[in-house]
Amino acid sequence: ADGLPTGFVVVPGSELLLARPNTVSVVCKSSSLGIELADGEEHEVLALIDRSDAAVDELSEMSPEDFYAFADADDRVHIRWLDALPAGWRVLGRLVYTQLPYVARPGSKSGFAEMSDEFEF
């Protein structure tokens, strides 16, 4: 565990997270979750995984509508939707929240003339 990156992140407080004290945050690429952002670029996003979800201990508790964090046979983590668990895979937790970065839409304006490069007082 010496080489594992660790740290803290701040996310907006909510009842959703308050009710799930065994939640961890995973930094991942937006494309790995199938998320396309307005600028078309790939960005880091935070995926909050509830490790105390019932599906961790009982596969029949997996919801067909939810994304989960899985470990494959080689212990690589995958966050995705699956209709059936492949052989050798296990459930690590359920995705409960994803924090996306603010990305300005290309060509969009702020709506404030003062923010324009052409604005003069």
TrEMBL record:
Q: What residue stretches are annotated with the Rubisco accumulation factor 1 C-terminal domain?
A: 7-96
What domain of life? Eukaryota
> Which InterPro entries does the UniProt entry name for this protein?
Raf1_C (IPR040858)
Q: What is this protein called?
A: Rubisco accumulation factor 1 C-terminal domain-containing protein
Q: Which organism is it from?
A: Calcidiscus leptoporus
Show the taxonomic lineage.
Answer: Eukaryota, Haptista, Haptophyta, Prymnesiophyceae, Coccolithales
